[in-house]
Design brief:
By secondary structure, the chain is mainly beta. The protein is built from no helices and eleven strands.
């Protein structure tokens, strides 16, 4: 599985962005997809995942502001980010693993290249 993330950019606090992750491969629907982020000097952290069956998980820090969704026919996963805060500034990565989602980065086999999100105050 090859992943390519896009959609990052510079936005003011309170604004919105939608990240996209395009995946290759015919078995996309069998993979759980996760979005992670890594801010400078910090560890990579899970933002959200969506399992192959469609169940979702969100980190407490983004619950109610971010929404993860997948489009299996188009082999894409999205992260809609609303009410952005300066602390959301990070490089965002999409990741994939077979089946159900996982909380840790080590649980994901495939990674995209990352897209930078910068939220100004």
């Amino acid at each position: 599985v090859q992943l390519q993330a896009s959609g990052g950019g510079l936005v003011q606090a309170g604004g919105s962005l939608r990240l996209s992750c395009a995946a290759s491969g015919r078995t996309f629907s069998n993979y759980a997809m996760g979005w992670f982020r890594q801010a400078p000097g910090k560890e990579r952290e899970l933002v959200a995942f969506i399992s192959s069956g469609g169940s979702t998980y969100y980190a407490d820090s983004v619950k109610g502001r971010f929404t993860i969704a997948r489009d299996n026919p188009r082999t894409q996963v999205y992260l809609q980010m609303n009410s952005l805060k300066p602390e959301d500034t990070a490089v965002y990565y999409c990741a994939a693993r077979w089946g159900s989602g996982a909380l840790g980065a080590n649980g994901y086999e495939y990674w995209g290249q990352g897209t930078l999100v910068t939220v100004s105050s």
